[in-house]
Structures are given as structure tokens and as C-alpha cells.
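Protocol step 4 of 5: obtain the predicted structure for the target chain.
Materials: sequence only (see below). No template structures provided, no constraints applied. The aim of this step is simply to have a reference model before the mutagenesis design in step 5. Sequence pasted as it appears in the construct record:
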Amino acid sequence: MFHPPHPETYRDQLRAFLREDWGTQDWTTAAVPDRPMTARVIAKSDLVLAGLPMAVEILKLTCASLKAELPRSDGQRVPAGTEVMQLRGSSHGMLLAERVMLNLLQRLSGTATLTRKFVDAIEGTGARILDTRKTTPGLKLLEKYAVRCGGGVNHRLTLGDGVLLKENHLTAVGGVRAAVEAVRRVAPLLVKIEVEVETLGQLKACLDLPDVDGVLLDNMALEQMREAVALRDRSGRRLFLEASGNLTLDRARAVAETGVDFLSVGALTHSAPAVDLSLRMD
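Step 4 output (C-alpha cells):
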């Protein structure tokens, strides 16, 4: 069961998407009669669904009388030709929302579909797939929901959800220890601290700091990652290791087999191709 964000957290964005699409008026829809109609949304390619609740919310904004049945649910794999929504309502209302609704559903399902490919690629290794903050402005909450629908794990929803000390932070403060100590003085107790490292020397520094909860291994070679896992295991520390950088689908399993706990993949939200769905009125 995938728990989507509450509609109030994204409804304003949906209204903005509709306003952007309409401009001053939808002259095409205004020219045809408005009458009760039924319609179906059909998957035209094999995909993993994500965004059905958002699709319904968009339709409700233009069609107050909308009745929607969802024979499939977010997170399900569906083959081409599957009906994923059955709709009844005003023809004008559905036409006004059609393109925006499909655009969003196709994009979110594309993210879920790509995420599932990565999840399948590393199955059995014990590692998990993480998203990143490389999201589309205005769509971050929904894109990260789509990652969950595909079987991935969210890293941070916002900057306040956790500390990630990256290269520029470490440079600005003066090194790993100084940065970790500075953050621990200001961050709430329950906020975890993760440090990005590029060398095994930096990893060793993190292992000596009890306030570090996790380490991001940035663009390390496979052998370096295996050494990093061995160092962590010998230390007895329970901090997690996250691999990042150049994580293509072809390379994902080899990285997971080094023993890291997570693979963070920016492509899930910045490069996932949209899948194909269509709305057909009966």
C-alpha cells in the first residue's frame, strides 16, 4: 500500500498547471456540447503506475460531478492495453483536464517504472535504491512519491529532513571533524548526519566521529567501495554507506554487490522517460 501525500499539499500546483495550459480560454472545448460521458485511461506501454490519486484530483478541479473507479493502483506493474481509470462526468470537465492529467500521470509513472528497473537490477543484494534532490521544481513531493511506488526509498524530502555535508560544506568549514561538530551543535537531536567523502582517508575520519550516521561514497571505483565496506565493518560502527555517482542501470548490480547499503540515483527524477497513457471517451 502506497500512501500518497495529502491533496492539500499539492492541489495549488495542480491548479497552476491547469491555468498554464488554458491560457485565456480553451476555445476548442467551449465550441463542443457539454454532456455526461464515460471515459477510460489506458496504458499504451508496459509500466509501473504512479500518480492515480493526483490524476483524479486534477479531474475533480474541472469536473465537480466526476465519478472515478480505479481498477489498478499505484505501485502495480501493468501491461500495455490495461485500463487504469474508469471515469464518468462532464465532457467539458474531462476535456479541460485531459492533457495536464495525462502529462502528470505519464511523468510520475515513468519515474516509478525506471525506479522498479533499478530495484529489480539489485534484487537479492541487500542494497536499496535512493532518490536525490535532483527533482523538478514544483513536483518534488510527487516525484519522490513516484520513487516509492517503484520500490525505491526517499533520501530527504526537504533540506530540514537530514544533514548531508557535501564537498563544498567541508571546504567552507575546514574539514570533516569541524563540519560534523558544527552541525551537531545546531541540528535537532533526531536529525541524522551524513558526510560525503571522496577518499578512504575521509571515511576513516568519519568512523572516528560518533555523531556521523552515514557516509556517501562519491564517485568511487568498485574496489574503493569494497575497501570502504571492509573498513566500516572492521570498525564495528553501524553507520550506513551510500554509493553515488555514475550509477547507470548496467552498473547498479556491481555497485550493490560491493556491500554498500544504498545506491542514490539522480536519474530517477531528472531523466526518467515518460510512459504512454491515453484517455478515450466512450
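Step 4 remarks: The radius of gyration is 22 Å. The mean pLDDT is 96.
Proceed to step 5.
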